[in-house]
Amino acid sequence: MKRRVVVLFLLLCAWLAPAQAHKPSDSYLSLAVHGQQIEGQWDIALRDLDFAIGLDGNGDGALTWDEIRARHDAIAAYALQRLQVASNQGVCPLKAVAQLIDSHTDGAYNVLRFQATCPGAAPATLSIGYTLFADLDPQHKGLLKLASGDNTQTAIFDPDSPRQNISLAAPDRLAQFGAYVKHGIWHIWIGYDHILFLLSLLLPAVLLKRPNDTDRLDPTAESWGRTLRVRPQTLPLGLKAAFIDVFKVVTAFTLAHSITLTLASLSLVSLPSRWVESAIAASVILAALNNLLPLFRGKRPVAAFVFGLIHGFGFASVLRDLGLPQGSLLASLFGFNVGVEIGQLAIVAAFLPLAWLLRKTWFYRQVLTVGSLAIAVVAAVWLVERIADIKLISA
């Protein structure tokens, strides 16, 4: 029995370990259209470029500026071959003009700046083809922000949708709202730390017990002519009660992260990214350990609210990278929030029925205990990585 538990623990750690970053492979593409001229900036993760074309010249596992600069031509050639921009008049040739380094929440990025001139008159529509890492990573996403005059639009590219036509006229508000809903759904599904925090709080929901409403009488005491109440029995929660408990946890988390997401996205409150990401990792540890030790003592919704305030700043970092259109800022922010909630509810809808069916099995007890321990261990690795700005586990 113990051997099987150890094997299960190791398998869980092996599955969770690669999910060390806040999000998997994304790149951030910004295009600013000025008549026929296009100015672009493309932020691509150095770890992805290293895997694709090799940047670590001496193979020591650490990238230096000299190693990256030596591969600037190769980086530009590799990236721009996988990005096509065209107007209705023809192809807009792309030309690299500069390369820099910048930091995002999940590591260092190469910043490729480029320009293009479209043939003919100023385009009314751009056709954009995006195939970066399509042959290497089917989960990779390209997040586009396109600015034209006072209008800002966004789009998501992946191997299943590598080409999109984008009108430069004022965007359809409903379509833009839908795009941010999609962004929200995607970013809750790829936010491993957010998901593990939520699951850690949900795991015990189907195992909670409640006191029996009717106290039992001590028959021995009655035989002596007196009535003595004894400690009430505890009964397992029903499915309805378990659902209500889950609803309280998710609602508290939702309300809290919506508050800080809005404040941070509107630039009313700002916290250092490393602090936020470290605090998120710490919240995952505490939520997981609560399943092994009674840290919150029946106050999981309160814990979900407190830590949800921190997670909201993590969601806001995504919107800062993606950008919010100034013309419909509140609507886009609301759409992103709606998307996050849809993503969360999808996780709950998949989790709760399955957990309810398995709640009495040995397997579920191991998932609760061993799984929670594995989550705490992996989150502890995240915490060390984020505090010390080092990488302990290779993705």
Description:
This protein has helices spanning 2-16, 46-53, 65-70, 72-80, 173-189, 192-202, 219-223, 239-265, 273-289, 300-322, 329-358, 362-388, and strands at residues 26-34, 37-45, 83-87, 90-91, 94-104, 107-117, 125-130, 141-148, 151-157, 163-167, 209-211, 234-236. With 395 residues, it is an alpha+beta fold. It folds into 2 domains: 2-17 and 191-211 and 237-388; 26-172, no CATH class. Helix 6 packs parallel to helix 9 (273-289). It is globular, with a radius of gyration of 25 Å. The two termini are 31 Å apart.
Helical residue percent?
40-55%
> Looking at the structure, what is the overall shape?
globular
Radius of gyration: 25 Å
Overall pLDDT score: 81
The beta-strand count equals 12
Q: How many discrete domains? A: 2
Instruction: Give me the secondary-structure category.
Output: alpha+beta
Strand composition percent: 15-25%
How far apart the termini lie comes to 31 Å
Largest sheet: 6 strands, mixed
- Sequence of strands across the biggest β-sheet: 5-6-2-1-8-9
**Number of continuous helical runs:** 12
Sequence-ordered SSE layout with sheet pairings:
Elements: H1 2-16, E1 26-34, E2 37-45, H2 46-53, H3 65-70, H4 72-80, E3 83-87, E4 90-91, E5 94-104, E6 107-117, E7 125-130, E8 141-148, E9 151-157, E10 163-167, H5 173-189, H6 192-202, E11 209-211, H7 219-223, E12 234-236, H8 239-265, H9 273-289, H10 300-322, H11 329-358, H12 362-388
Parallel strand pairs: 1-8
Antiparallel strand pairs: 1-2, 2-6, 3-4, 3-7, 5-6, 7-10, 8-9, 11-12
Helix pairs in contact: 1-12, 5-11, 6-9, 6-11, 8-10, 8-11, 9-10, 9-12
